[in-house]
Amino acid sequence: MILKEAKKLYIETLGCAMNVRDSEHIIAELGDKENYVLCDNVLDADLILINTCSVREKPVSKLFSEIGKYNKRKKEGAKIGVCGCTASHLGDEIFKRAPYVSFVIGARNVSKIAEAVNTPRFLSVDTDYDESTYAFGEFRNSLYKAYVNISIGCDKKCTYCIVPQTRGDELSIPPELIINEAKKAAQSGAKEIFLLGQNVNNYGKRFSQKRTDMIDFPDLLNQISEIKGVERIRFTSPHPLHMDDKFLETFANNPKICKSMHMPLQSGSTHILEQMKRGYTKEWFLNRALKLRAMVPDVSISTDVIVAFPGESDADFEDTLDVMRQVKFEQVFAFKYSARPLTKAAEFENQIDPEIGSQRLEKLQLMQDDILDEISCAHQDKIYPVYIEELRNSGFLAGRSDNNALVQIKGDESLLGQVVNVKITNPKRLALYGEVVL
Ligand code: SAH
Ligand code: SF4
Ligand code: F3S
Question: Taking the model in full, what pTM does it have?
Answer without folding.
Answer: 0.96
